[in-house]
Amino acid sequence: MAHPDTTLESRSRRNLLKVGSLALGGLVIGFSLPFPGRSFAEQVLSEGPEDQPMSNSTALDAFIGIDRDGKVIFTVPKIEMGQGAQSGLAVMIAEELEIGLDQITLKEAPPNEAIYNDKLLNFQATGGSTSIRSNWEPLRQAGAAARLLLIQAAAQRWQVGADQLRAENGRVLGPDGQSFGYGELVDDASKLPVPENIPLKPAEQFKLIGKPTRRLDTPAKVNGTARFTIDLVVPGMKYASARACPVIGGTVRSVDDRAARKVPGVIDVIRLGDAVAVIGEHTWATFAGVRALEIEWDYGDNADIDSAQMEREIKEALDKPGALANEQGDIDKALKDAAKTFEAEYQMPFLAHAALEPMTCVAQVRPDAVELWVGTQVPVRAQTAAAEASGRPAEQIIVNNQLIGGAFGRRLEVDFIHQAAAIAAKVDYPIKLTWLREEDTTHDMYRPHYIDRFAAALDAEGRLLGWRHTIAGASVLARFAPAAVPDSGLDGDAVEVAIHPIYAMQNLRVNYVPVPPKALRQSWWRGVGPLRSTYMLESFIDEVARSVDRDPVEYRMELLGSHPRAQAVLRLAAEQAGWGEPLEAGHGRGVAVQEVFGSFLATVVELQVTEDKGIKLKRLVVAVDCGQVMNPVSVKSQIEGGTLFGLSAALFNEITVSKGRVEQSNFHDYRQLRISEAPPVETFIVESREAPGGVGEAGTAMIAPALVNALASANGTRIRRLPLARAGYYVI
Amino acid sequence: MLTLSINGADLEVDVPEDMPLLWVLRDVLALTGSKYGCGIAQCGACTVHLDGEAARSCVLPVGEVKGRKVVTIESIGNTDLGQQVQQAWLEDEVVQCGYCQCGQIMSAVALLEKNPQPDDQTIDQGMAGNLCRCCTYTRIRSAIKRVAQA
């Protein structure tokens, strides 16, 4: 823990830096980027307000500490769940601080919105592909400020001008061959004010940024020593698992736990409002105990709901006006006067996250505090959930964040943390809650089912004059952050990408109709709004192009005149995929292009389809311009994995509901892409000095439309409703 | 009391014979590298070696393991091949979240033991039982080939 004895502020364009000393000697640099009062929707639509000053107390949990041995401790504001964000952020600091990546020790940030808020999301979270984008300037500035202070401290010792010194590899070098390790300078440096002017390295001088570097978290992940939440053991801990009412909103009426209590290793059975938990000496006892429970439920209001009804309600919503998201020109007139019109409706289903680590949380409720050990994308929300469940004030909740075994948005939710704290509050020892896979699949918080309706107006030459676009589905934002949704109900996430189509058109109307969720709790899923809209828009523009016998790449290219970066990735992907080269019968190519998460991507799928609907994926080619790259290997990994993650869902996945219950339960009936079905992903990065864009979700957003467009090209069948398996397609 | 041969050591455990090996490893012996993903041998995150063959420990009653040699991720690096596979996983930056990778590595080692020069089809067959939700499949293939070519 650091205690600042000198706290000085230096206002720069985007952040505030603070300097102080570590309790045991050393230098600490803290900074803050809160954008209070700013909603997610607002930030989608406008630029942000002024930065707010950072209070003295917030410097205590500062980001960068350098101790007297020269060890750099980086308190990372983002959690690692496979996306490589922590290593990417470490690269920024190492670059400006002139140290090797191996000199950095990572520490998980505690819940503290004053310091760790994401400036794009406006709360402390890892999500929305923001990690690199939000920290690009502030982290480099923090690293550069630390370097300048260390140089200044050396200059004072040697009584020479700072301009004669330079930093390299963790040392400050003097003009006559003398040098100090950073550790020798930290005490002096901690007493200096933060420099007024903190110039950042020009890109030509980057040694680490944009170069292939090894991730910091991977060595422990290949030998079994990496600890995820599910692996943790704290002193005195017992194991727990739970079964909640299969119908959301239902409650426990009565429990017959005689059989469960007879399971060897079962210690206790705990009744909660909507669930029953079994505590045991090991996880197996808790699983067997949960399976042996005889529970009578009061199923509540959702007990008669099924998928057909849910779909009907979304369809009916399409006929309502909903919230106007954007309007240009006069689309009604354009449609009336058009030489040709084209209409279509598309659907994407409910999806589970199905991360391989099921929901897990270690919780202890003690007289003095409540302590959580849990991998979470939202530490402050975790704190709030535990406070609510245990009846303790938030200040008493300690959150120790952990590595996450896949999240894809699932750990932006805290339902399982609430449950763990509620169980822990009823016993006097810590518990580790582990959900059965079946519980995880049936009690996920699902990606909403959306239905979009389009009508395009075309002139006699087939040129696009505009379109009318209506979106219907549940608003995740309205539940997750109600303050971010205006009275109109416009969900800034749901309409992202669709609200300002990348294609030039004079007439446009985009409406969004929120459909109040029933029976399923609905949430963020990798790709969020951009994934939603990209599937819809890229399916539709493809159909429009084909309806007027135009080449889908050429047609898009003409409409992208004001987006040269989009044109460039489209050209590159088309070139690399051999777009236009002749194909055998039954083969086809499909394309999608978009700007998502601040990055430009184009994806081309080449496939073969047999008469009995067997699909052989031949090639997946992705061109990406994500601005300045931190680590090209990480960018490629994210594009490869993200693309296949989206492919898996587009091919196979749909959550269905019968009698208020989710019908799928495990990987046998909610199947996922296997290596034998996964074609190699060929990724091409456009070199760019633009500000970094996100890549964690970008590949995922592109693949579904490219896939259905390829199928249409191969056999003339247009799939307007995902997944392909629903229409009888399978992978060969 | 059951005596188990785990990673070359004889260990005594006091557990019911129908308890899956996975939970004995994880919760009794504190060997947590083998992971729980599905409990029905669908995902492969729990893969260990049983007498040199890849086996899904989540459906393997510990009573059936008596007298057989179990090797887990915690000791696979003690063999040359195991170490080469782990190293290739790092060289090719296979790992994303990492949760499935211990199981992937155990399956890859078992595959390479049997077939030191696998082609794409053999790799796909040998690895199809291991799900990766981060979908690192492209790099798993290249890492296995890196070992094969070494």
TrEMBL record, chain B:
Residues 1-76 form the 2Fe-2S ferredoxin-type domain. The keyword DNA-binding does not apply. Keywords: 2Fe-2S, Iron, Iron-sulfur, Metal-binding, Oxidoreductase. PROSITE patterns: 2FE2S_FER_1, 2FE2S_FER_2. It comes from the Bacteria. One of its GO terms (molecular function) is 2 iron, 2 sulfur cluster binding. The keyword Oxidoreductase applies. Pfam families: Fer2, Fer2_2. This is (2Fe-2S)-binding protein. It comes from Stutzerimonas zhaodongensis. The lineage of its organism: Bacteria, Pseudomonadati, Pseudomonadota, Gammaproteobacteria, Pseudomonadales.
